[in-house]
Design goal:
The structure holds 2 protein chains of 2 kinds. Chain A is about 35% helix and about 20% strand. Chain A contains 4 helices and 6 strands, in the order αβαβαββββα. By secondary structure, chain B is of the alpha/beta class. Helices cover about 35% and strands about 20% of the residues of chain B. The longest helix of chain B is centred in the N-terminal third of the chain and has 17 residues, at about 5-25. The chains are: A alpha+beta, B alpha/beta.
């Protein structure tokens, strides 16, 4: 997901990627710089409001599930990918792009 | 530089030169007109120490807490000092060898403006006190029973250490233990101590 070459493929579909984490921008900044992330990271600290409202915040772990939401220009969620608690499954760009193209094709 | 030498070898030879200069104590980091150390000169020291740097000198999150001897301590009151902020726990094996080193640094450099602060992660005062006594630690140890300070700093593993300049801004951080008494660590501390703190009005 973080790789630049992959980012271009999302960009080509007209998709803006936004990253959300429960860290302060203080720690996000070095993370983003170290990976040279080409997209913005948003801080959802300390209340995890965004994560809660998307239903992916785990209060016990104080962490969000790894999750992706596809939002259309009207602000409607068209697709979501949520990795269950405790799993470390990687959601690959290829999977996301294939699903996104499928969703877009239906519209 | 030998023409045609592979880039990797060239890079290595630069590192070697820096290491030799450090060994002779010759490396002096100059100050810019702002009173800050030259970022380009700090970079190799940060790299040798394997510190992730804050190129934009981001302001670290403010916190206040209570030390082992029940004194209130806030980051703000240390403004003007160079701060080594170390997150630790008594069960953390890799933290243990670092603590006496940090104690020695505090003793050596405190008169010049270095403050070492240890943040104990989610332990009781008794556990932290036992540990401090065993290792003979005299620098301030702040208790973070509920992990709030850890969360502010996004600490995910121990030890994690942040280096903060006299201007109250973060210079770099390390996840995992580091050689805090090495020549490059000393050179970094000296360079940061040589910076001038900004006047209070500018803050």
């Amino acid at each position: 997901m973080a790789r630049k070459a992959d980012y271009k493929r999302f960009e080509n579909l007209g998709i803006q990627i936004l990253g959300v984490s429960s860290n302060l921008t203080f720690s996000q900044q070095t993370f983003a710089e170290s990976l040279k992330l080409p997209y913005p990271l948003l801080s959802d600290f300390p209340e995890a409001k965004v994560m809660r409202s998307y239903g992916v915040f785990n209060d016990k772990m104080m962490l969000a599930n790894r999750a992706f939401f596809l939002i259309d220009p009207q602000g409607i969620i068209r697709k979501k990918w949520i990795v269950p608690n405790g799993e470390t499954t990687v959601v690959y760009s290829d999977t996301l792009l294939r699903d996104i193209q499928e969703v877009m094709g239906k519209r | 530089m030998t023409p045609g030498l592979p880039a990797v070898l060239r890079a290595w030879s630069l590192v070697g030169l820096a290491a030799r200069l450090l060994a002779c104590g010759l490396l002096v980091v100059g100050l810019t007109e702002t009173g800050r150390a030259d970022q380009a000169a700090l970079a190799p020291l940060l790299k040798t120490l394997d510190l992730r740097d804050y190129t934009a000198r981001t302001a670290p999150p403010k916190f206040s807490g209570s030390t082992l001897d029940a004194r209130p301590l806030s980051l703000a009151e240390c403004r003007g000092s160079v701060i080594i902020l170390n997150f630790w726990a008594s069960w953390c094996l890799e933290c243990r060898p670092e603590m006496p080193v940090l104690e020695r640094l505090q003793r050596e450099f405190s008169s010049r403006g270095l403050v070492v602060i240890g943040v104990n992660t989610r332990e009781t005062k008794e556990a932290a006190r036992r540990y401090a006594k065993e290792l003979g630690l005299t620098f301030p140890l702040v208790l973070d029973r509920d992990g709030k300070i850890n969360a502010l700093y996004g600490v995910v593993g121990l030890p994690t250490t942040f280096v903060i300049g006299r201007d109250g801004r973060a210079i770099g951080f390390a996840v995992g233990p580091r050689e805090w008494e090495s020549a490059s660590a000393r050179a970094l501390i000296a360079a940061l101590l040589a910076e001038s703190a900004p006047p209070l009005a500018a803050q």
